[in-house]
Amino acid sequence: MSKKLVAFFSASGTTKKVAEMIAEEAKADLFEIEPKVPYTKADLDWMNKKSRSSVEMSDKKYRPEIMKKKMDMSSYDEILLGFPIWWYVAPTIINTFLEAYDFSGKKIVLFATSGGSGFGNTVEELQPSAPDAVIIEGSLLNRGTKQEISDWVKSL
Q: Which of 13, 120, 140, 144 lies closest to 57 in space, CA to CA?
């Protein structure tokens, strides 16, 4: 039986709830990607071009620092990686996470929450951060119902 990890970044708690349900349904370990400096409500104001999230997302090379935790990725076959969609893609903190650990030979299945947009170029923008992994666009799990999540996990 393959060993799964649900890794996620959640700025407001929405993605965290979904990730917890996925981990429970998939009988997977749970790993929270935490920024070294937590995001405030003002940081997440996408209408303000000077807000932290706007500044980070306007520079695709920017890598927000994360709390680096000891993690042996070699014990996992599959990583279910979740995040909110920002500016039609994954937040650059996801690149930071992928560059912090070795995902060689791993299958990474993405899931996201979004106020309305899809994955856009997410796979293309994340692939260089984990060049030896297979990254697959998974699903937008906006409603986050138990049934929706159960159906998605079974489909993997």
A: 120
Pick from 33, 48, 43, 134: which is nearest to 90 by CA? 33
The string of pLDDT tens digits covering residues 104-141 is: 999 999 999 998 889 999 999 999 999 999 999 999 99
C-alpha–C-alpha distance, residues 98 and 33, integer Å: 10
pLDDT digits (tens, 9 = 90+) for 27-46: 999 999 999 999 999 999 98
Local structure of residue 86 (DSSP, 8 states)? B
CA–CA distance, 12 with 84 (Å, rounded to integer): 9
- Who's near 84: CB < 8 A, 6+ residues apart? 9, 10, 11, 12, 14, 15, 91, 112, 113, 114
d(CA 122, CA 110): 9
Owner of token pair 């903190």: 93
Could you tell me the two tokens for 18?
């979904």
**35: nearest Cα among 22, 24, 44:** 44
129 φ/ψ sector (left φ>0, alpha ψ -120 to 50, else beta): alpha
d(CA 42, CA 127): 30
